Structures are given as structure tokens and as C-alpha cells.
Amino acid sequence: MKILRKYLKKPPNYSFEDPVQVDKRTKLTNKSFIGRFSYMGKATVMGDIHVGRFCSIANGFSYYSGDHDMKSLTTHPFIYSDDMFGQYPGYKDIKYKQNIKYQDAEFSSLKIGNDCWFGADVTVLKGCSTIGDGAIVGARSVVTKDIPPYSISVGGPAKVIKFRFDEEIVARLLRVKWWKFDLSILKDLDFSDVGKCLKFLESQDE
Question: By the 8 A CB rule, do 47 and 65 touch?
């Protein structure tokens, strides 16, 4: 399936499945991936991110995969990188690369499952590497650790307040993976009746 993406001035450098919608102001790394029917508003993404299918990511989403060095003379990144200011006179003469080793140089990546919903202005920090399928993260939450599937998390730091369904339903949802089916199979489902949807989709795998 192909959809004309008028919002993109040029082809993105990240991988994706058509169709997707990503705000043209959002910059993603070439190792990032966006699954089909997922959308992302204006976001700040500093690191590699893998987004599953049918995800709803509102404006203001932020992901930070690294930290500043708090044990050095300064927390400013000029001591280990000239990416931002290296073109200015004097910066390249500083022998920081020889004298200072950035202690937290390993940057993490974030995997977001399928059918996840992020409210506005959610921040995800490097302590989180996985957000499970079907998870909901409330607006302005600060995520510092992994979020389990089909949970609802809010706050700063974000905490699980409840799950969308009971354990049996969650297990069946994770097993059937409804997002893998073609729209031709999904189109006649009564999405408000999760039990009937599951029964039908489970029959398709028999």
C-alpha cells in the first residue's frame, strides 16, 4: 500500500513501512524504523528508535539515549565532542579528545511495541529500552524504565496505574498479534468487543 506523503519534502533516511506519518520537523537516525499506520508528531529523538505498527505518538515526544558527564569539570559536551561548535576558532585546538574520556559514551536505543499510545509531551530517558505492545503513556509523563505490555502509565517518573485488560486477555492479544493481519481481515471486526475480535483472529491462525 502506498500513500502520497506530501508532508515530506524529501525521502526520509530512516526505514519505514508504508503508510506512516511523521512530522517533517522530526529528525530520526538512519537506524530508526517506523511501522505501518504509525504516526508521530513533532518530536525530539536523540538516538535510534524502533516503532511498531499502529502507534499514536502525539506532539512533544522526546527520547534521550545518553547523559552528560556529571563527574568532569563541566557537563557541557564540548569536552568530548565538537559536533555543535567545532567550526568556531579555538575549539579544534582544545586537546579534549586526548585528555578527557567521556565516561558514558554508550548510547542506548528504544523499542516501542505495536498499538502504543503516547500523550502529548512524553519524555523517555535512557533507563527505558522497551515499551511493550498496547501500552499507554499519559501526557507529560517521564519514562525512566521499561513499560509492560497493555499497561497504562502516568507521572514523573511514570508508574503503572493499571492494565487495559485482564491477564488472560493480554496473553491472548500478545499471542494473536492483531497488527500483523491485513486490513482486509480487520475491516469487519467490531473493535469495541475485544472478546469477539480475539475469537475471530485466533481462528485465522488455526
Answer: yes
Whole-prediction pTM: 0.85
C-alpha dist (Å) from residue 42 to 38, 55, 82, 136: 14, 15, 26, 18
CATH architecture of structural domain 1-66+107-164: 3 Solenoid (2.160)
Q: Is residue 96's pLDDT more than 70?
A: no
Return d(Cα 153, Cα 142) in angstroms, integer.
10
Query: Which of helix, strand or coil describes residue 133?
Result: coil
Active site residue 68: yes
Handedness of CA 28, 31, 37, 38 (dihedral sign): negative
Residues of the chain with CATH 2.160.10.10: 1-66+107-164
Angle between helices 167-176 and 194-204 (to 10 degrees): 40
Selected catalytic residue, list 68, 76, 97, 180 = 68
